[in-house]
């Protein structure tokens, strides 16, 4: 990566980090408000539905609209064992963790193309992000979370068993990876069909803390996938 690219990457990563551990309605680095997925295709065409939830309409840095809690039942009922807890990405970050604590003195406006301090700062930021702490309260929890897909392998015909789930469009592809506590390494016993790179997905499964070093980034969480579905507006 040359210095000019380092400055651009560093600027985006720093701005992205500044939105971590802030209210879910906070703006993403490239957009003033979370962006919802395109309207779903008719149920009669499942393959088209998967593709309709893909990359069209998203910009680098766009986040999905925060998940809304389900409406309470008229009569309280004990949750079934198969129920998943609906979580946002903020829930994966310890409340006392400040991603910018070590970078308060970083002045991006002082860096210029060719400045070796840009590469040094980017490497320093990467080390901090790769060791970002996870939230112990979500360990070994059955969750449902929406994010963007970064495939780690493919089996042809858009099938995959392993991928990263990330909170904003372009992460790990067009921009440096986010902190490890904002990346989930997902594995599935059966191949998943129809999802492409940066498709918006609902992922449901058991979430556990644990570092995974992959070619696309370091994750602080792992998930054994039970169900995958295209993300749709309205938290459905």
Structure commentary:
- By secondary structure, this protein is of the alpha/beta class.
- It is built from three helices and six strands.
- It has helices at residues 3-18, 46-52, 116-130, and strands at 85-86, 141-151, 159-166, 184-193, 200-214, 217-230.
- The protein has a five-stranded mixed β-barrel with strand order 2-3-4-6-5.
- Helix 1 (3-18) crosses helix 3 (116-130).
- The longest helix has 16 residues, at 3-18.
- The chain starts with a helix and ends in a 6-residue tail after the last strand.
- The model is unreliable at 22-55 and 69-81 (pLDDT under 50).
What tags apply to this protein structure?
25% strand; five-stranded mixed beta barrel; 3 helices; 236 residues
What order do the helices and strands come in, and which of them pair?
Layout: H1 3-18, H2 46-52, E1 85-86, H3 116-130, E2 141-151, E3 159-166, E4 184-193, E5 200-214, E6 217-230
Parallel strand pairs: 1-2, 4-6
Antiparallel strand pairs: 2-3, 2-5, 3-4, 5-6
Helix pairs in contact: 1-3
**What is the 3D shape?**
globular
Specify Rg, calculated over alpha carbons: 18 Å
Mind describing the biggest β-sheet? 5 strands, mixed, barrel
Distance between the first and last residues' Cα: 40 Å
Per DSSP E runs of 2 or more residues, the count of β-strands stands at: 6
Q: Strand arrangement, largest sheet?
A: 2-3-4-6-5
Portion of residues within helices: 10-25%
Structural class: alpha/beta
* Mean of pLDDT: 75
Write down the oligomeric state: single chain
Instruction: Give the percentage of residues in beta strands.
Output: 25-35%
Low-confidence stretches: 22-55, 69-81
């Amino acid at each position: 990566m040359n210095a000019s690219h380092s400055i651009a990457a560093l600027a985006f990563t720093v701005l992205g980090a500044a939105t971590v551990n802030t209210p879910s309605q906070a703006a993403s680095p490239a957009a003033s408000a979370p962006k919802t997925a395109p309207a779903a295709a008719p149920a009669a065409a499942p393959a088209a539905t998967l593709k309709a939830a893909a990359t069209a309409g998203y910009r680098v840095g766009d986040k999905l609209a925060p998940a809304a809690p389900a409406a309470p039942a008229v009569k309280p009922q004990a949750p079934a064992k198969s129920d998943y807890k609906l979580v946002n990405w903020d829930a994966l970050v310890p409340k006392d963790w400040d991603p910018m604590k070590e970078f308060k003195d970083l002045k991006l406006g002082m860096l210029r193309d060719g400045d070796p301090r840009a590469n040094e700062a980017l490497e320093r930021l990467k080390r901090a992000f790769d060791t970002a702490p996870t939230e112990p309260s979500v360990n070994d929890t059955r969750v449902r979370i929406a994010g963007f897909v970064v495939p780690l392998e493919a089996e042809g015909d858009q099938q995959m068993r392993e991928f990263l789930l990330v909170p904003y469009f372009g992460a790990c592809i067009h921009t440096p990876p986010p902190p490890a506590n904002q990346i989930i390494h997902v594995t599935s016993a059966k191949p998943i069909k129809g999802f492409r790179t940066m498709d918006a997905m609902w992922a449901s499964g058991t979430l556990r803390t644990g570092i995974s070093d992959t070619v696309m980034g370091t994750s602080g969480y792992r998930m054994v996938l039970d169900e995958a579905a295209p993300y749709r507006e309205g938290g459905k």
